[in-house]
Amino acid sequence: MKMNAKNMVAIAGAAILMTGFAACKKDSNNNTPTPTPTPTPAAYPKTVNIEYRLTSESGVDSVSTIGYTNETGGSSNAMNVKLPFSKKLTRTVKQYDNLAYAFNAYGAGTLRMTILVDGTAVKDQTHSGTNVISGSMAYIFQ
């Protein structure tokens, strides 16, 4: 029998299939690794502890205004605040609820903003300026 290209492709294809079936054979020692389960997202709504922090890394020691999302999801403000600033609160959140946090200060320096949820920093930024320093950030619950 004479081998032409068509026959060679058919034989090669059969060989590949046979190899694939042999590779899929069940291991008699059952040494296959157990798949790692995918973690389930946290159930919502849930109650979380939130902390807003504002600290001076250099320069200014107070800020003129601080605004933040409060316990009810509304806005609260603090005026003429000495640094370091820390505000702790507890809030029940739903998925995609957000936290907003902002400040304004006059002077030269660098300030660090941090949002912590249940003791873990979820957002952290520094803001610098020579006359006015302002910063804002938000966190969305996933």
Describe this structure in words.
- With 142 residues, the protein is mostly beta strands.
- The protein has a domain at 46-140: Immunoglobulin-like (Sandwich).
- It has 1 helix and 8 strands.
- It has one helix spanning 5-23; strands spanning 46-58, 62-69, 75-82, 85-93, 98-106, 109-117, 120-129, 132-140.
- The strands form 2 sheets. It has a 4-stranded antiparallel β-sheet, with no helix packed on it. Strands 3-2-5-8 form a 4-stranded antiparallel β-sheet, with no helix packed on it.
- The termini are far apart.
- Mean pLDDT is 84; it is low at 7-27.
Overall, the morphology is: elongated
Spell the H/E element sequence.
HEEEEEEEE
Question: How many beta-strand segments?
Answer: 8
Proportion of residues in extended strands: over 45%
Radius of gyration: 30 Å
**Total of DSSP H or I helical runs spanning 4+ residues:** 1
**How does the helix and strand content classify structurally?**
mainly beta
The biggest sheet, with number of strands, parallel, antiparallel or mixed sense and barrel status, is: 4 strands, antiparallel
The helix fraction, in percent, is: 10-25%
CATH class of the domain at 46-140: Mainly Beta
Question: What's the architecture of the domain at 46-140 in CATH terms?
Answer: Sandwich
